[in-house]
Amino acid sequence: MNFPVKSFSCEYVDFGADEDGDLAITLYGDFPAVGQMTGDEAMAIVSSARFFELFRIADEQAAFGTPLWGALQRAKRGGTITAQFKEPDASPVH
């Protein structure tokens, strides 16, 4: 999946709940090294139509009553969402 920001591409996305029950999203792809991605670039990715489609699919597929389902419900009502950008098999870069 390509995002409309400097041709970043994403191999896969992991949706989960963190220890506080908030939504935690990790995007794995060809993202820049730590400190090289700007806040504007990150926001352009997570506010893109493609990202919202992934969010919609995750919401449809989450099993009722699971931590992920709860985190998605909170996120839809304005809860906290944490996004990380990683290279596959690498440490976090943002």
Key terms for this structure?
alpha+beta, three-stranded mixed sheet, 22% strand, 94 residues
What is the structure about, briefly put?
This protein is an alpha+beta fold. The protein has three helices and three strands, in the order ββαααβ. The chain has a three-stranded mixed beta sheet with strand order 1-2-3.
Helix and strand topology:
Blueprint: E1 10-17, E2 23-29, H1 39-46, H2 49-61, H3 67-76, E3 81-86
What does this structure look like?
This protein has helices at residues 39-46, 49-61, 67-76, and strands spanning 10-17, 23-29, 81-86. The mean pLDDT is 85. Strands 1-2-3 form a three-stranded mixed beta sheet. A hairpin with a 5-residue loop joins strand 1 and strand 2 (23-29). By secondary structure, it is of the alpha+beta class. The chain is globular and about 35 Å long.
